[in-house]
């Protein structure tokens, strides 16, 4: 493998891994804030215990998110220095603003939240988790602004003398039509992850220990399941908007998602196609007529461009070359995203039904579903990103810079191979540690609350409520 | 003032912020190995930085992002050129985050020992390598006509670079010890200050040697003045520690770190990464910069939000101002 292949594998591995933690962090920060708000308003101690329980799971996940997040910022420069030179004028700004506006908020106010239980007034303490949660959402917006530029470059001009894209309209970058559809789709997708996580963990606890805190886990489960279902419909709707924008700005990606080789109008939606990779022969296919036209254009007989004609068009526009992404990867990841997301909603609905009128189900299958449930939307999120990034290939910035031109010219195979091996190994070890730790705390169940503080004891002598 | 100069100053300020703040939490991390006796003391040490270390680390992320946005050429050359040291720093930071965050999550002594190893490793490696990297940037490294770094890993391990690394390592240790002196009470406080003073003698000697070397190499009056002030701040910090003035001792090391970083950036200006092969190939604030439009937008964002960030970060230090004693650590 050459430097390009290794750098691409490294980007894929580190980014997909980092992204296991991001949606849960975004969604769960808000759900924990909601739980604490419920306690704050009602004084119901069940919500306080839930806040502390899910708060701890959140923090374990958050730690992994920040640990793997630093690599993201560094590796643009380390492995993709020519890309950085080319887009720095545009891409760097949202990245820097993310740090200044979002990361500082998250880290400072989470620190205040974790350690401030007995140092801050309850209202101020509650505000801290909400501010941290807002920080995670800002962060998503600016990162997606940077990514959306790569999907659909706007607000720039090419400076051929300097060999770079230069920013001319920052507002256009922040209101990129791809960004405006991706941001809601992604944020709502984060709520699917967090809803499924809360619902799965709560139901598992109710079913395994029906006589231990079932009255507290039940409302948490319902909250999680409802969030999952509502967010599920939300991702479908926003995904539909996104499909239309994608068909317009990146028609090749939509064609690749469907393995649609020839222009078609009306175009069918492929549920399953088995055939040769170049589309010359189909062995078996199952499709819904006209659906792709509707998804792509909003009308039942709208024309959707096929891979072959787009390839021809791009060759005329950009010169000879292969402008097709990896079709099996795009085709299957697109389907896997929809399928796992749909299964999550189905599982959530079944669980809600099974727990109606205060029932605690006993089915072994449902227990297994509760264990798998948190993983489904998480996997759907990952597939969605693998699809959207692989579907952009062979471009790193669509239409402007091929991925192969972005790699660092000065780094050696040895260097990239070393870092690829180091991160893969380290991430593997961390995965084992993280999963075991999460399972341990899930199984422990709700924490007991500390006894009220002895009023005679001077505040200065009291033990820290939270100490490392 | 030129926007490029303004952004050079902003990046210098971000590095000052990063090294002054994370400097003391690296120092506390290293103290886990050299002074903590028993589990309670280790917990007390970690608790002194508990609420703030993560916020300190964000200064690095913002410094990196700001370099990317304001000086893409600098970012690209630096990060691809210093590949292996940055990889080591990243691994150090990752295991340190996990060590700090996960150490209290299980009670087994072996778990906590492993976390402590991660914390110490993740504090020593970046504390040493940041100094090596900064010194090399100022000294100049082989950069070719295309702005590419053409040296290797061992090019960076020259005497000046290594001396820079030893300075940050030892000064951070003293800075951390004085922070512990400020944030704890009882016997642990006394031992921290005593240790800080002992290491401080070595750190001070190394720092003076480094400052003199920098001054001779850069031939600039401002470098001598700032370097001299850094030395004075360090001596005053040490003297305050002897006098039992914990706040002033920590302020002294904080100022000395800030002034050493200012010395380095002053020596660097107007280059951002001088080439040791040919001065014409050096990256400068002008040839490495983004467009004026991007810099203008970034300036507005920085001018508005930096004071807000400094405001709430200061507030969080105020909220957690109380000293910690071993009695505060739950059994």
TrEMBL record, chain A:
Annotated compartments: Cell membrane
GO molecular function: electron transfer activity; heme binding; metal ion binding; oxidoreductase activity, acting on diphenols and related substances as donors, oxygen as acceptor
A GO-annotated cellular component: cytochrome complex
Protein topology in the membrane: Multi-pass membrane protein
Residue stretches spanning the membrane: 12-33, 53-71, 91-115, 127-150, 186-207, 219-237, 332-353, 365-387, 416-439
Pfam families reported in the protein's UniProt record: Cyt_bd_oxida_I (PF01654)
Signal peptide: none
Protein name in UniProt: Cytochrome ubiquinol oxidase subunit I
Origin species: Aeromicrobium yanjiei
Lineage: Bacteria, Bacillati, Actinomycetota, Actinomycetes, Propionibacteriales
UniProtKB/TrEMBL annotation, chain B:
MF annotations from Gene Ontology: electron transfer activity; metal ion binding; oxidoreductase activity, acting on diphenols and related substances as donors, oxygen as acceptor
GO terms (BP aspect): aerobic electron transport chain
Entry annotated with the keyword Heme: yes
Classification via InterPro entries: Cyt-d_oxidase_su2
Any one of the GO CC terms: plasma membrane
Keywords associated with the record: Cell membrane, Electron transport, Heme, Iron, Membrane, Metal-binding, Transmembrane, Transmembrane helix, Transport
Keyword Membrane: yes
Main location: membrane
Tree of life domain: Bacteria
Transmembrane segment boundaries: 6-36, 82-102, 114-137, 157-183, 195-215, 221-241, 248-269, 297-320
Membrane topology of the entry: Multi-pass membrane protein
Localization of this protein: Cell membrane
NCBIfam families: cydB
Sequence similarity: Belongs to the cytochrome ubiquinol oxidase subunit 2 family.
Protein name, UniProt field: Cytochrome d ubiquinol oxidase subunit II
